[in-house]
């Protein structure tokens, strides 16, 4: 079996960690995998997967394989791979993996191209690097692809741009748009795991600090909520007036980054955009400011500008680089500006990824059944899948809810009953 991982001797440790995560993923483990094993909905299908190679992803690809798929996995970020997990997937689960933590850009894209070379029927992406590379460099393989899925906000933005420009050649299900994904994964997953990454990297006390959150989408909401819960004074920066009002009414200060830069002790970007923190902001930051990113790509912080401005750079802790400015101020960059929750920590907890990856698995099944009826475009997860994931999660949590009475259903479907 072809593969490229760091060290197969790490496999046993990785298997233990995969099984630990599996315990907290009952929807994927029991409700979906057991059915997939019986009905084989993905039999004969090749899946090209570009996701963070973590314990949670391991349980997704295991489920897809049990459903009959031939799966090939590479990393969607050079710093997010857990090498022991990659080794375990190869050694214990016979899944071809092409991912090494800290791989350089050439190796990163070589791994993506290796997965593409397997000529997948379905792509499963996080950030759209797999899809964009396939479209740009392997147009001859596009006719074979029946559809794809996309995990994150950044990737959905890129895919919608491709669709708008008329270059997207097959339908893609935007898993990120599922309510059972972004309301929980983005908010609670990103909120907790980002704080985890910042604390593991720095061991700093959040209570009493000024914490600047750039962007108030679902990831920003979750991060601001968790930072405030640990005693930080939270400032939110935004470009969207509606989100800015929401942040203010949620109790946070709102101001431009130019002003927040003067006040913040810790900064984190979660916007999906480029150069949110840049030279003009570095120029006014206080000595000791900590800068991090939890958006998908390492473009939200202008690291090149920081490198150019600094007269000295040194690694002071794992995942912490100290940049000394001409005036003696020190700015600390976490995880090289990459996803801090995966560069310095382990990513989202398994419980929220259970829902996200349930959407991935069921969306792949949907593409097999309905992909031929979809035009090349970006689609939301079908409502029946979203609701099914929520129902399965509630069942796994042992929670029961009310159902509408016939009278209530009639009332909601009528227009002539008033006060």
Automatic annotation (TrEMBL):
Alphabetical list of PROSITE patterns matching this protein: ADOHCYASE_1 (PS00738), ADOHCYASE_2 (PS00739)
SUPFAM superfamilies, sorted: Formate/glycerate dehydrogenase catalytic domain-like (SSF52283), NAD(P)-binding Rossmann-fold domains (SSF51735)
GO cellular component labels: cytosol
Pathway: Amino-acid biosynthesis; L-homocysteine biosynthesis; L-homocysteine from S-adenosyl-L-homocysteine: step 1/1
Residues given in the record as NAD(+) binding sites: 152-154, 186, 215-222, 238, 273, 294-296, 341, 348
Subcellular location: Cytoplasm
Enzyme Commission number(s): 3.13.2.1
Residues engaged in binding substrate: 54, 126, 151, 181, 185
EC category: hydrolase
UniProt main location, coarse: cytoplasm
Gene3D superfamilies noted in UniProt: Adenosylhomocysteinase-like (3.40.50.1480), NAD(P)-binding Rossmann-like Domain (3.40.50.720)
GO terms, molecular function: adenosylhomocysteinase activity
Gene Ontology biological process terms in this record: L-homocysteine biosynthetic process; one-carbon metabolic process; S-adenosylmethionine cycle
Cofactor dependency: NAD(+)
UniProtKB keywords: Cytoplasm, Hydrolase, NAD, One-carbon metabolism
Domain called S-adenosyl-L-homocysteine hydrolase NAD binding: residue spans: 186-347
Top-level lineage group: Bacteria
Catalyzed reactions: S-adenosyl-L-homocysteine + H2O = L-homocysteine + adenosine
Comment on bound cofactor: Binds 1 NAD(+) per subunit.
Function of the molecule: May play a key role in the regulation of the intracellular concentration of adenosylhomocysteine.
Family assignment from sequence similarity: Belongs to the adenosylhomocysteinase family.
Protein name per UniProt: Adenosylhomocysteinase
Biological source species: Desulfurobacterium indicum
